[in-house]
Write a structure and sequence with these properties.
By secondary structure, the protein is of the alpha/beta class. It has a domain of 226 residues: Rossmann fold. It has eleven helices and 13 strands. The N and C termini lie far apart (40 Å).
């Protein structure tokens, strides 16, 4: 099988490329703006890497779509701060560029495995989100944080419409807070990254961890190895079990609040980081959503997935519990920083 991975240097993309090269005989064509997270893989003869922006390299992308068996379009902006500060940039990359890729796939008959988001459920009131039953409830237009969720949801609907018309083979997966050592670099400003990297960045710099709205929001954290295991099953598509399906990929057993997460990360960080350039340990403070992100922000109290479909159709079960997932993430994150020569990490 030949895969085309768009956004291969991201957290999910680099983890997928590594797993494919380590565990399958598949070939990969890949593109991204950089390849630092592909260290040790870039010279593999089964990986053809192109450095560039998909918006500027459309001819290359279209040619690769025609050659591929499956396209995984991972290019997106998945940081809440950017949703509020630069919503049009989020729309252009997350929606418009991926729409072009999907249209080409439909035209030439290449299968799409589309990474959506748990954010498409929005403020759904269900106790557990079910792929084809739960309502997708987004906030008012003035709350621009929903532009990412709206973009992903509309792409799902376009994909589904093409599939229903017999023009596109597809699978959609909705990741629920995948975490791991390579999740993100330390953000440069509030909301510049996902919550784990946001908190770890504060710890590395010796800054206060800021809990938006008191940190009572709950999320279910899924270790990257579990998520990639499921994604490989989706790509393999044994007996067509993933065909024309939407899958939640998360770990409902790993639910915790942001306040609990901050305490756990601070404890693990103190255990594994040693001292950080003489900086004191980070305190934990409360801030409002508007103060942290801006006036276009709105939060979600809880996101809990039903994974019954992935269990039944794919035989997939997440295995890494929350404590182990956080431990691996912190240790690996610090080791990555030390390996890059960060002056902030004195010992690991």
């Amino acid at each position: 099988m030949r895969l085309l991975v768009l956004g291969a240097n991201g957290f999910i993309g680099s983890s997928l490329v590594r797993a494919v090269l380590d565990r399958t005989s598949w070939r990969i064509a890949a593109i991204d703006l950089a390849h630092d997270k592909l260290a040790g893989m870039i010279d593999d003869p089964r990986l053809e890497f192109e450095r560039g922006d998909i918006a500027e390299r459309r001819a290359w992308v279209e040619a690769q779509v025609r050659e591929a068996d499956v396209v995984v379009p991972l290019v997106a902006i998945a940081t809440p701060g950017t949703y509020v500060r630069d919503p049009l940039r989020v729309f252009e990359l997350t929606f418009a560029e991926n729409l072009h890729v999907i249209r080409v796939c439909a035209e030439v008959g290449t299968r799409v495995v589309f990474p959506s988001s748990s954010e498409v459920y929005g403020m759904c009131p269900d106790d557990a989100f079910v792929e084809d039953r739960s309502r997708l409830v987004l906030g008012p237009i003035s709350k621009q944080r929903w532009i990412y969720a709206a973009s992903k949801q509309l792409l799902e609907r376009v994909i589904w419409a093409h599939g229903s018309a017999g023009r596109l083979r597809f699978t959609v997966f909705r990741p629920f807070n995948w975490i791991g050592p390579a999740i993100d670099d330390p953000p440069s400003k509030n909301g510049g990254s996902r919550v784990i990297a946001e908190f770890l960045g504060c710890l590395v710099r010796g800054e206060s961890i800021r809990l938006v709205g008191g940190g009572q929001q709950k999320r279910c954290f899924t270790y990257i190895d579990d998520g990639i295991d499921c994604l490989l099953k989706i790509l393999e598509n044994h007996h067509g079990r993933a065909e024309s399906q939407i899958f939640n990929v998360g770990n409902p057993a790993n639910e915790c609040s942001m306040a609990e997460l901050a305490l756990a990360l601070r404890r693990l960080f103190a255990t594994h980081a040693g001292r950080l350039g003489g900086r004191p340990g980070s305190e934990i403070v409360e801030v409002s959503g508007e103060e942290f992100y801006g006036p276009g922000y709105e939060d979600v109290p809880r996101r809990l997935p039903s994974i019954a479909r992935a269990r039944t159709a794919l035989g997939w079960e997440p295995r890494v519990g929350l404590d182990e997932a956080l431990q691996r993430t912190v240790v690996g994150y610090l080791e990555n920083m030390r390996r890059r020569g960060s002056p902030l990490v004195a010992a690991v």
